[in-house]
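Good morning,

Attaching, inline, the backbone tokens for the sequence recovery test we're adding to the shared suite. The designed sequence is right after.
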């Protein structure tokens, strides 16, 4: 019985430790994600020479962090954003789903354009091939005629051409 009791208490301890470790891992992971997002916002603002604003709230709605860190800059960006019309806001506001949908639509358009261009190219190659085959046949006919009717003189050649073949 003693070993049974100790094993069940060990399982409870392991479960509690496991839950604590998962919670720590989640918190650490969230902190890393937040740090990465803020870093990317900084990079975008520098590379694109645009003002970027990131506001991070927790589940309870408390302000956790912002980029830029200066609250006056954040308020200034928000005031300018709020003064925009609804149409202008839609242009400047994109969520992840909209971004990917737009990307998929653009890729489908590009694929259709590529398919159309491929079809046109294939058609042109087919026309070129047909033209080349016609020219090759004409050359073969000329070579055959030259072999059948060697040129001794132009009058013999013209006479031979006018006579029917037997």
């Amino acid at each position: 019985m003693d070993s049974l009791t100790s094993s069940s208490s060990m399982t409870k301890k392991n479960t509690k430790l496991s839950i604590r470790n998962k919670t720590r891992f989640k918190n650490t992971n969230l902190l890393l994600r937040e740090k990465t997002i803020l870093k990317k916002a900084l990079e975008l603002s520098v590379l694109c020479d645009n003002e970027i604003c990131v506001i991070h709230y927790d589940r309870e709605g408390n302000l956790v962090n912002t980029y830029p860190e200066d609250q006056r800059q954040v308020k200034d960006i928000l005031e300018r954003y709020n003064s925009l019309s609804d149409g202008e806001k839609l242009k400047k506001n994109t969520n992840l789903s909209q971004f990917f949908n737009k990307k998929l639509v653009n890729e489908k358009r590009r694929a259709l354009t590529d398919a159309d261009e491929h079809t046109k190219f294939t058609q042109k190659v087919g026309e070129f091939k047909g033209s080349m085959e016609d020219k090759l046949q004409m050359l073969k006919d000329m070579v055959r005629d030259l072999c059948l009717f060697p040129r001794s003189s132009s009058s013999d050649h013209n006479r031979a051409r006018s006579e029917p073949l037997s």
